[in-house]
Structure formats: C-alpha cells, structure tokens
Specification:
By secondary structure, the chain is mostly helical. It has helices spanning about 1-10, 20-45, 50-55, 60-95, 100-110, 110-115, 115-125, 135-140, 150-160, 160-175, 175-185, 190-220, 220-225, 235-245, 250-285.
Length: about 300
C-alpha cells in the first residue's frame, strides 16, 4: 500500500503527504474567494440593490451610452493595430537573427514595466498644448490630447505587448523547419505565412487578442491622463464609473461596473475555451500514430 502511494506521489512530481496538498488547495481557494469571487459578487449585488429598474436606468443616460460607445471604438481600433504589430514583432524575433534583437524584445516588454499613468504623461508631453508637437497641432487645428486620438494612442501603448508576448515563445518553439520546407517547395513568403505559419499560431493568436481586448476595455490609468474627463465625449466606461461614484450615484456606478465585470467573465470563458481547444488538439495530435517511413525506390538490376 505504501509503495503504491509512493509511486502516485512520484508520478505527480511531489512526495509531500496528502494533508499538505489539501492545505495548499484550501489556501488557494480561500484566497480566490476572498479577493476575487467576493468582490465580484459585491459588484453585482450593489448594482441590483435597488432592483432591476434602477439597474436599467443607469444605462438610459446619454453619458453612459457615450462611454460604452467610446470604449468599443477604442478597442476596435487598438486591437487590430496591436494584432498587426504583434504578429510582425513575433515573426521578426522568432524567425530571424539580427543585430538589436534583444533590444527589440526588451522594447516589447516596456509597457509591462512602465506605469500606465506615466504612459499617459508621455503622450501629454508629446502632444499637449505645451508639448513637443503641441504648437504645430494647434496651428493646424488637430486635437490629440483630451480627444479620442489620445485615448486610442494611450490604449495602444499599454496593450501592444499582449499579442506579441503570446506569439514569440510559441513561434520560437515551433522553429523554422516547416517554413523552410514550404520555401523549398516553391511557396512565396505570403503563401508560407497564410498556409503554414498562421495555422500553427492561430490559437495563440486568438488567446493574445482576447487578453488585449480585455485590457483595452478596462484600461484606466493612461486613459485618465489623456482624456480630460469630458462627459459625453472622452469618458470611457472605467472613467464613467469613477465619475458616478464620486457623485454618490453608487447604484449607477456599480451597474456600469457590472457591465465591465460581465465583459471580463465573457473574456474568461472564451479564454478557457481556447485553452481547452488548444489542449484537445495537442492531445489528438499526440495520439496519432507516426507516419510510416517511405519505402526506398527499387534499384534497377545491373546487367
């Protein structure tokens, strides 16, 4: 009996007794409940505290619809641009060797180490009224800061690593053998990308897009700096929640926050489905029998 337990522990990669495992699981579940599930439930509870009519009334205001529309527009612009950049950066880093490759990889990670507020201040320094390009923009009546373009730029900055960071390790692990084989067979660069590279990275690409979209819709710090908090014009959903809460409209604030939370849950569900689908395909591919080696061609008989 003890030997079988030892074998099971060795197979699981640990030799600790069972009580250690269940203690760790209990601590993890308690942490998730206290710091994730309980606050999430509080958001929906507060949103519905005065009933469904008060909940729906929060979405009947023009400012709320403007914030929702601006959030969707910002994500619709930022995510496709980051998709193009992420694929290009991952392709360059994973498939090519060039001088400055490590520096480019560091730049991809830069938004992870820079505060979003600092990112917003960078754009104010560049495009603000007293910034580097401010006088020229004012002379040509071009508005970036305290307008939609500034919000889009700030969102792109804080979200562009997500897709690239999902694709780089995946493409590095896959190597370049299949692309080289396609080129030997006469495929062009675009044909190689569409028929070889893209099918191999599609699940990682979808995963990165989901994370990028979730961050774009929920970004607060950088957008707060460049938006100007103009009601009905430059407020996204997180900024609208802050304004409502500061004005003691708690039900309306939690109602809009519950919509953001619902979007996060939908994103989590899609993310889990993508992970499950990817693991399912990997297991199916591993279960396939190896292809038989081709038989050598018969040699012609010598005279």
């Amino acid at each position: 009996m003890s030997n079988s337990r030892t074998v099971r522990r060795a197979q699981s990669g640990t030799t600790e007794p069972a009580w250690v495992k269940w203690t760790l699981i209990g601590v993890a579940l308690a942490f998730v409940f206290l710091f994730l599930l309980l606050p999430l439930a509080a958001v929906f509870t507060e949103a519905l505290r005065k009933g469904v009519p008060a909940f729906l009334e929060a979405f009947q205001e023009p400012d709320a619809w403007s914030a929702i529309r601006l959030t969707l527009i910002t994500a619709a612009i930022a995510v496709p641009l980051n998709l193009v950049f992420g694929v290009a950066a991952a392709w360059a880093i994973a498939k090519y060797e060039f001088r400055g490759k490590a520096f480019l990889t560091t730049l991809v990670d830069l938004p992870f180490s820079v505060s979003p507020v600092v990112a917003g201040l960078i754009y104010v320094l560049m495009f603000g009224a007293h910034g580097w390009f401010g006088p020229w923009l004012q002379a040509h009546d071009v508005k970036i800061i305290f307008a939609v373009p500034g919000i889009v730029l700030a969102t792109i900055f804080v979200t562009f690593p997500f897709i690239a960071r999902e694709l780089i390790p995946l493409m590095q692990a896959q190597g370049t053998e299949e692309e080289q084989a396609a080129q030997v067979l006469g495929a062009s660069g675009w044909q190689t990308f569409w028929h070889v590279t893209l099918p191999n990275i599609k699940w990682g690409l979808i995963y990165g897009v989901i994370l990028c979209n979730a961050r774009a819709m929920g970004e607060f710090g950088a957008v707060s700096v460049v938006s100007g908090h103009i009601r009905g014009q430059t407020n996204t959903m997180p900024l609208h929640v802050e304004i409502l809460y500061n004005e003691y409209q708690s039900v309306a604030a939690f109602a809009v926050a519950s919509l953001l939370a619902l979007l996060a849950l939908v994103t989590l569900a899609i993310k889990s489905f993508v992970e499950w689908q990817f693991e399912h395909l990997e297991k199916a591919a591993a279960a396939l029998p190896p292809e038989p080696a081709p038989k050598p061609a018969p040699q012609p008989a010598r005279a």
